[in-house]
Amino acid sequence: MESKFGLVNVWLQGDWVTRSVALLLLGMSLASWIVIVVKAIDLFRYRRLAGGAEPFWHSADFAEGLAKLGPPADNPFRQLAVEGREAAAHVRHREGTARTELHDALDVSDWVTRCLRNCIDEFTARLSSGLAILASVGSTAPFIGLFGTVWGIYHALLAIGTSGQSTIDKVAGPIGEALIMTALGLAVAIPAVLGYNALVRGNKSILNGLNSFAHD
After folding, report:
1. Cystine design at 192: which of 92, 98, 138, 204 (Cβ 3.0–4.6 Å)?
2. What is the pTM of this model?
């Protein structure tokens, strides 16, 4: 015998508000998991690339060092090394020429530091992309689910009052179905919060390694 209660019944018996809340929570959950999976894959790849930072300094020349840093595609350590080389080459190129721009007044140390810092800042922004989605989902999903519960309980009580049947079996079903929305909100928010915290810790580890490489 098919049950008259459950998620399917919530969808079939709910109005457009209940269905909108359910679809919104589903969309937020999908967005969260996509961000978590994509960013986790990126973190594993960056950690593997970080292993080439130490062998870089034991290379015979710059070209060999770049090869040890790994492939050029989206490699922050390789980009940082190339940026440092280009910054130093720029300073050597302008030596003996007239200073026509403000940044030409910087000495080699300040100029290279500035270029490396800009490179790290750009990578930090790219590394942090998507985390705002997890933070938003983690903070709003429980309240969206709670709104769906309040709306469902309100309409369930109206229906019970109209029918005139207030026995426990008539009350428990609709109220329990309404509480499902709160559970769904928590089911969406908890992975988003845990994923956000894990990714922030992972990003911090990668950035510490990148800053150490830039320092060296």
Report:
1. 138
2. 0.75
CB neighbours of residue 111 within 10 Å: 18
SS (H, E, C) the chain: CCCCCCHHHHHHHCCHHHHHHHHHHHHHHHHHHHHHHHHHHHHHHHHHHHCCHHHHCCCCCHHHHHHHHCCCCCCHHHHHHHHHHHHHHHHHHHCCCCCCCHHHHCCHHHHHHHHHHHHHHHHHHHHHCCHHHHHHHHHHHHHHHHHHHHHHHHHHHHHHHHHCCCCHHHHHHHHHHHHHHHHHHHHHHHHHHHHHHHHHHHHHHHHHHHHHHHHC
Q: Which amino acid is at 81?
A: A
- Express each pLDDT in 18-46 by its tens digit: 788 888 999 999 999 999 999 999 888 88
Written as six digits, the tokens of 66 are: 């770049």
